[in-house]
Amino acid sequence: MNTHNPLGKRKNIIAGVAVVFVLVYIVQLFFLQVLSPQYREYADSNAFLRRQLYPARGAIYDRKGNLLVYNRPTYDVMMVVREMEQLDTLDFCHTLNIDMDRFHALNAEMRDRRKNPGYSSYTPQLFLSQLNMEEYGLLQEKLYKFPGIYIQSRTERQYNYPNMGLILGYVAEVDKNKMAADPYYVRGDYVGKSGIELSHEEDLRGEKGVEVLLRDAHGRVQGRYQEGRQDKTPRSGRDLTLGIDIALQAYGETLMHNKVGSIVMIEPKTGEILCMISAPTYDPSLLTGKAFSANYQALENNPYKPLINRAIAGTYPPGSTFKPTQGLVFLQEGIMTAETRYSCYGGYPPLGGRPACHGHGSPLALQYALSTSCNSFFCYGLNGMLSNRSKYASVGEAFDVWKDHMVNMGFGYPLGVDLPSEKRGFIPNSKFYSNVFKTDRWNAHNIISIAIGQGEILTTPLQLANISALIANRGHFYTPHVVREREGAALDERYSTRHESGINREYFDVTVEGMADAVTRGTCRGINLAPFVEVCGKTGTSENPHGDDHSLFIGFAPKDDPQVAIAVIVENGRFGATNAVPIARLMMQQFFRGEIPESDQWLETSIVNREIMPYTYTRNMPVN
């Protein structure tokens, strides 16, 4: 019996194909009607208009409550492309005071998914930003004539002072990388790009809200959907209070006019930064509004790089300001005592008077060596440590112990200030020199320049101010920070954590005495403010292969109850006593008195009018 039935098999195949087609059709309908965002957006856009509500960005105050940064209203033109039927483009352009070429360029940019990944013809898209009140008023009057055009309000940053541009930072339109990394942002949003605006972006930005409006069949807004029950109120950004004193900051910027360098002042007991001057700087109001691009380009092209915060991103050999930390390490490691004396005959004798030194008494102990800034003394100390085989197995081991002490005191790595782009400086380790010399058989005399803060040693002005605070505190410091208070929230605990140097208190006592002597009868007598306040300090003259030496000073005051620590660096300023010391003196007078006494007004005039620029200064550059 033949059971083969081709007709039956054909029926089964046809039935199977039909079932597959029906299933595919059902799945496709389900996807289009239920899962597809395109049709859901289209349906929703016919019935609802979701209007984004932007929060006010948090305000910023100085330590005395002076308002530094606030907001003013600005307006964006939004388009819902699906609703733009028979738009009178010519009238629209005339109302916004733009030409047709500009209209088409903005329209193309809005639709470009590479620049605007969130583009949808069903939802409001940014067309033109930052309308002022006059432009807003003109468009608002004629808005009924332009279907699909809406106005969205937001705020723009404003500044009460022409100072602190590098600390405050600026906000600008978000880029596609930021939008991809954080779904909070869409095209047209503004985000902190530098300074506090960047480092505290999540505090300052707040939370967006939304207003859901109901539309009729013709797309006309009829009112709030469900009486606003689906709306979300925006939450304003968190206000910030800084440790900065705006009067002190502004005065420091005045002193550093026509100079390149930095001033940093820290409150030792808390780590709060009282002022942070980087010169040259810029007026923060330059980087707002429609002139942003042109002003930014001018600042970026300025040869003095006013967009770089030299206080945290400038790296310099510390010169003789490094000597107090050298002495502390040598004391802690038992290489010397406070009474140990070394000779100096115009330079370091074992290397034939290299590095050279100036005239002073010899032999000398640490306290006197600090007050006179003797080079030879600290060269003997470094050689004594690196050649000590009774304590260290090798020069590499000794050097790495030295390096670890320096790191514990805040050198060689970022301190963790609450600002972006902080540099680490450089403290080498033994492997660095073994690689340089192609052998482990090197010694202190091969690297003797680091004994006096030269050679490969690099520090930032912030690190130098921090070492001043550490010595002022006799052995500990708090991570320097700009923000003092966050509205409704505590500061990160890292800014209240005490960092110990690992150096005994007794060794700081002798170091402080040496720095006090340097002010009363040593290299920085120019900052002696006794009997009003007892200042401790140390000058530095840092060799610069590109021109005149840099002028440096570190110090703190008062000696026994320190309220302020300071570091000053003037690029190409030559000797520390020539420029850094008088600037530090004026800053101390401003800090303690709130004004410059008559006796120092001649010095103030001299410093303010002094121009120390490494090459020809272009005066029309938009910098302070």
Give me some keywords for this one.
single chain, 624 residues, alpha+beta, Penicillin-binding protein 2a (Domain 2), Beta-lactamase, 2 domains, 6-stranded mixed beta sheet, 5-stranded antiparallel beta sheet, 21 helices, elongated, disordered C terminus
Question: Overview of this structure, please?
Answer:
- By secondary structure, the chain is α+β, with helices and mostly antiparallel strands.
- It folds into two domains: about 50-230, Penicillin-binding protein 2a (Domain 2), CATH 3.90.1310.10; about 245-285 and about 310-610, Beta-lactamase.
- Helix content is about 35%, strand content about 15%.
- The protein is built from 21 helices and 18 strands.
- The strands form five sheets. Strands 2, 3, 4, 5, 10 and 14 form a six-stranded mixed sheet that branches. A five-stranded antiparallel sheet has the order 12-11-18-17-16, with helices on both faces.
- Strand 2 and strand 3 form a beta hairpin.
- Helix 1 (about 5-35) packs across helix 2 (about 35-45).
- It is elongated, with a radius of gyration of 33 Å.
